[in-house]
């Protein structure tokens, strides 16, 4: 596949690898791309069209909704509901599964999404994105239980980043590829083929304000990096935190690094900060397909059996050698404190 190939052509060529394919997945992906273009257009106009600011509601997790959270959620539903490729949807902004209404054709896929990730960046004109995950369904009327599949079962994972350029990054299990929206022709074109996250890096991304609540392995990792040339790595590190996971992860896909939203005492009761089904799982799929590692510190994220649509988990992802150091710290800590540690990694020292 050559650089410059349109997303629609890439999808059809992938479809041809499976003679039994009906084309439903290809059409679903085209609908998702259209939804992302529509959200991108609303994001670009910003204050000009009154999409900034708070809505008069909270979401099901008690978080203040922004107007754009609601608009993006509605645009995603609107672009996907009528085509007949989906059995049901679920989103960060809706407490329960959103069924395809009776009378509308239904398909064999489940679509889970975070319509607007990094909501706190909306009003400051910072980068934001949409994250999505597609799984299979064998039911005509799926329930929440049908959505609770391990991340390894995702058919496709992706995000759309609304940055200086709008980019869609996807994996259908054959590597991770990025397509940039060419605004002149209104099409996403392949600009980054088979992304490989560098194994080493001197950059990490973490909300330092939570430091006092972190567990010892994460404190140990950051203290080592802060020591710079005098630390065990013998080099100076840089810290970056955008506050929108799509952007912080995109940087890692482009040039390596480590991103973490680990467990801390302030969020332990909730299980973590980021949501498994529509944040951690799709991002972990993209990162692993690009040669990186994704873990809670103790378990591989993609192996977790979800317990609910809005379950939260600790997330530590990125360059192999950085994340392996963190895993080694967690392994020792788990042994000392009789905690379960199951992440298998060939790089363990
Ligand atoms: P959101 O989906 O409601 O925007 O929340 C998720 C975001 C992530 O994108 C980001 O990494 C994190 O929340 C930022 O958290 P913090 O506010 O602690 O910096
Ligand atoms: Mg989010």
UniProtKB/TrEMBL annotation:
It comes from the Bacteria. Mg(2+) 2 binds at residues 114, 117, 279. Pathway: Carbohydrate biosynthesis. InterPro entries: FBPase_C_dom (IPR044015), FBPase_class-1 (IPR000146), FBPase_N (IPR033391), FBPtase (IPR028343). Residues 197-330 form the Fructose-1-6-bisphosphatase class 1 C-terminal domain. CDD domains: FBPase. It holds the Pfam family FBPase. Keywords: Carbohydrate metabolism, Cytoplasm, Hydrolase, Magnesium, Metal-binding. Homotetramer. This is Fructose-1,6-bisphosphatase class 1. It comes from Wohlfahrtiimonas larvae. The lineage of its organism: Bacteria, Pseudomonadati, Pseudomonadota, Gammaproteobacteria, Cardiobacteriales. The gene is fbp.
